[in-house]
Amino acid sequence: AVVSTQSKGKYKAVWEQGPRINLATRLKVYEAQVVSVLLYNCSSWAVPKQTLHSLDVCHRKHLRSMLNIKFPVCISNKTLYKRCETIPLSERVATARWKMFGHILRSQTNAPALMALKFALSSANDMKGRRGRHQTNLLNVLKCDLRERGLNFSLQFDEIVELAWNRQGWNLLGVTHQFI
User: CB-side exposure of 159: number of CA atoms within 13 Å?
Assistant: First the structure.
C-alpha cells in the first residue's frame, strides 16, 4: 500500500484537476499507474484476509480522493465502486488467482507447476506439518477457494482438472463480484 500511495503521489496534479480532467480519464491513469503496481503478480499471492482488507481500504481512500469526497460527506463503498465502475481489489486478486489456478490445471502433465501441485497434495497426508500456528500459503488459499465453490481438492482432483478444461464454466466459478 505504501508503494501505491507513493505512485499515486507522483500523479497528484492529475487527481487534483477535478472537473478539468474527466473522471474516466483519471480512473484510467489510476488503473495504469497505481493499481498495476498494487496488483503486480497478485495471482500467486497467499495473503491473509486482513491484508486484503487493508488493500481495499487503501484503494477506497484513493478513489474517494479522486472524487474529492472528504470527511463530512459520506458515501457507501458500494456506491463508490459503482460510481467509479470498479470492484474491490481483493476480488480482483481472487479472480486472478482463480484464473492462474485454472491455467495450471490445464497445463501438460509434466509441467513443473502441475507436478508441484500434485506433489503438495499427495505429500500433505504423508508428511508431518510444521509446529506452531498454521501458515497462510497458496495451497491452503486454493483449498479454501475450492471449498467456497463446493469442491474438494483431495477427493475430486481429476474432476477439478476436467472442470478447468471447460474455460467458460471455470471462469463462471471464479466470478465473485458483489459490488456491481
Answer: 8
* CA–CA distance, 165 with 104 (Å, rounded to integer): 11
Return phi, psi of residue 153, to 5°. -60, -55
**pTM reported for the whole predicted model:** 0.84
Question: Collapsing DSSP states into helix, strand and coil, what is residue 88?
Answer: coil
Rounded Cα–Cα distance for residues 2 and 4 (Å): 5
> What single string gives the DSSP state of each residue in 132-155?
SSPPP-HHHHHHHHHHHTT--TTT
- DSSP designation for 85: T
- Express each pLDDT in 5-63 by its tens digit: 666 667 677 766 667 888 888 899 889 988 998 899 999 999 888 999 999 999 999 99
Question: For the CA atoms of 73, 77, 79, 85, what is the dihedral angle to 10 degrees?
Answer: 120
